[in-house]
Design brief:
- This protein is an alpha/beta fold.
- The two termini are about 15 Å apart.
- The protein has one domain: 3-Layer(aba) Sandwich (Carbamate kinase).
- Helices cover about 35% and strands about 25% of the residues.
- The strands form five sheets. The chain has an eight-stranded mixed sheet, with helices on both faces. Strands 3-4 form a two-stranded antiparallel sheet. It has a two-stranded antiparallel sheet with strand order 6-9.
Amino acid sequence: MTLVVKVGGASGNSLGPVLDDLASRTDYILVHGGSERVDRLGEALGRPAEYFTSPSGAVSRRSDPAHLEVVVLGLAGAVQTEIVAALLARGVRAIGLSGVDAGLVLARRKEGAREVVDGKVLRVRDDWSGTVERVDGSLLRSLLGLGLVPVVGPPAVTERGEVVNVDADRIAAAVAAAVGAEALVLLTNVPGLLRAKDDANSLVREVRRAERDAALARAEGRMRKKVAAAFTALDGGVPRVVIATSQGPGPVARALAGDGTVFS
């Protein structure tokens, strides 16, 4: 079994329990975000983060050249290095890779991204975000074969060598499809997809592929990207995706046991 686990980086996520849960395994690839850390770094450098909402309702980080530098420093630098070090402290031989390394995650720079401002749809200017097109699954399988755990995160690279910011959930979905993973676990700061945004008791337990439109309509803010990534993974041949909380003991095992929203 090959497992892909993505742990979010927004406030309220718990990395320690995830790494503790994974420490005894060797059959996984860990994908990470790090939005809170990038936001704090941007504030410290005088480049505070900005977000925009697309016409579909998805919330995205504004990736102009100045902030893209912060993303690279924060994700491919601080966050990834700390995760690899934390895994090593748990006896796990891990290796950190951004999507740029060896062209691991090939992306296409977005053209014509749109945002909603005061009810008007406007073009996002000077945007250096991208859409994941291909992941080098053979490289990841080779590393697993050497007994190394790949720790993967943004940014990605285009065919012209341009560095672009890409969504970590989308990377996780593409990684899972590229390596033929048996499951993708997207761990976040809420129990899963909720019928009511602020009501943890309104968890949607199961979503079928035929319910795509309804699930996307129910998802709000950043959850919309996670739901979209879940369907991307299913479309890529991954048989099962779970969106679940990173909090509490054994979050990966609990998610695999169905404690979250299961897409199948």
